[in-house]
Amino acid sequence: MSDNTLVNPNLEFIDEVVGLGGDSLKKCFQCASCSVACPIAPEDSPFPRKEMIAASWGLKDRVVGSADIWLCHECGDCSTLCPRGAQPGDVLSAIRSYAISEYARPKKLAKMVTDKSKLGILTAIPAAWFALMAIITMFFGGTMEKIFGFFGVHWIHHTDAPIAHANFVSTWLVDATFVPLATASVVIFYLGLKRMINDMHENALTEGKTDKQDLDIKELLKTVPTVIPKILKHQQFNECGENKSRGTAHMMVLYGFVGCFIATVIAGSLLYLAGTAGPYSQINPLKWFGNLGGILIVLGAALMIKDRLGKDKSSGYKDWYLLGLVILLGATGLLTEMARLAGSTFGTYLVYYLHLILVFHLFAYVPFSKLAHFVYRIAGMTYAEYANRK
Ligand code: SF4
Ligand code: SF4
Fold first, then answer.
1. What is the tally of helices (H) and strands (E) in the chain?
2. CB 184 less than 6 A from any atom of ligand 1
């Protein structure tokens, strides 16, 4: 007599995946063409058919805790070949978005970031905060200098340059906002990754995808250096047929952010170690990295938007929130500098104010938005490598 398995479907999970862009889920009739078509799926227990089945049955833990969902690079080859017109690539993307909200804490904030009706309040918070910071800088700079000076802290609120960002919002206040936010994001990612890696291992053991009984974190970390070059080269995208061009746009955005990060590190060193406040000369390496980074971000994001608009792709709020944030970040970063060079005080401060609001979005909401896939994908690919899932 065969064993019976009791399936306990999580209907809320199905609804959420459908709402996140996986609306073609129910079209699947389990033919497996997609798993054969996928250029990345391992031969043993390939995806995405098994994820389509598990998700349509509401088996949340089976898919959300699986490393396989992070191996998919949304190339769309499977979606093109599906005889039922289902979009398994989009369903996996929706499951990944669900997983990001599932692992990030606090969950309430995670829900807010994926809910478009909450965009207003999520933007009003940094808008009010930086308006207050601007008022403090411009009207109470002298008082703040005395207060901070009393504690031995150098209050940077003014430079002699005719137009300088620090004259609008003190650099000290900007850093005092973003450093704790970035630290909180790192902690949220750490806790989320811890839960996710444990789930991935449990899932791999249950499905027989690994023969390693105990999860050895040291061994897992040793695998990271083998995964990073693949990500930097976007190796998986080269295996795609349909959307190979997406790899170029992704790389532009990735290296654009790397450039901006290097520029930020140089600016921090100049200010806090060398005591040199901006604005800096256009021939300073900081400007090369910052400007090139900004251009790459804008161009890469524009290509991604063009790709989404030009294809029959299921795009939801999470996709447009991320693309909008990325392109506006790059554009406001470049425009604030152009306005300063053009001598427009009002233009410079207005665009800088918008830029600060967007950077707040990036730091405060990144563990909950689709951008978090970058961190989780590294973890998923690392675990797959560790588990010898080829
Ligand atoms: S090809 Fe389409 S119908 Fe066939 S298993 Fe994949 S998603 Fe389902
Ligand atoms: S979108 Fe591409 S990588 Fe993802 S499952 Fe489909 S074929 Fe594989």
1. 18, 0
2. no
pLDDT digits (tens, 9 = 90+) for 107-137: 899 989 988 999 999 999 999 999 999 999 9
CATH number 1.20.120.430 given to 11-104:
no
**Distance from residue 16's CA to the centre of ligand 1 (Å):** 20
Cis preceding linkage at 279, omega within 30: yes
Residues 6+ apart with CB under 8 A from 56: 14, 25, 26, 28
Please work out whether the CB of residue 30 comes within 6 Å of at least one atom of ligand 1: yes
Q: How far is the CA of 41 from the centre of ligand 1 (A)?
A: 14
- Burial classification of residue 2, based on how many CB atoms lie within 10 Å of its CB (0-12 exposed, 13-18 middle, 19 or more buried): exposed
Cβ of 247 closer than 6 Å to ligand 2, yes or no, is no
Average pLDDT over residues 15-20: 90
CA distance 210 to 193: 19
CA dihedral 312, 316, 319, 323 (to 10 degrees): 80
User: Would you say the CB of residue 33 lies under 6 angstroms from ligand 1?
Assistant: yes
Residue nearest atom 4 of ligand 2, based on CA coordinates: 72
Which candidate, 18, 79, 73, 75, places its Cα nearest to that of 49?
79
> What's the pTM?
0.87
* Of 59, 55, 85, 58, the residue nearest 72 (C-alpha): 55
Q: Which residue has the tokens 């000369």?
A: 281
- Give the C-alpha separation, 140 to 133, whole Å: 10
Distance (angstroms) between ligand 2 centre and the Cα of 381 equals 14
Which of 24, 56, 72, 82 has most ligand 1 atoms within 8 Å of CB, for mutation?
Answer: 82
pLDDT score, position 156: 62
Query: What distance in angstroms lies between residue 99's CA and the mean position of ligand 1's atoms?
Result: 22
Domain spans in the chain, listed from the N-terminal domain onward: 11-104, 112-386
- pLDDT, tens digit, for every residue of 159-192? 677 888 888 998 889 999 999 999 999 999 999 9
Q: Give yes or no for residue 1 having a pLDDT over 60.
A: no
Reported as a single tens digit per residue, the pLDDT across 257-292 is: 999 999 999 998 988 888 787 788 888 999 999 999
Answer yes or no: is the C-beta of 82 below 6 A from any ligand 1 atom.
yes
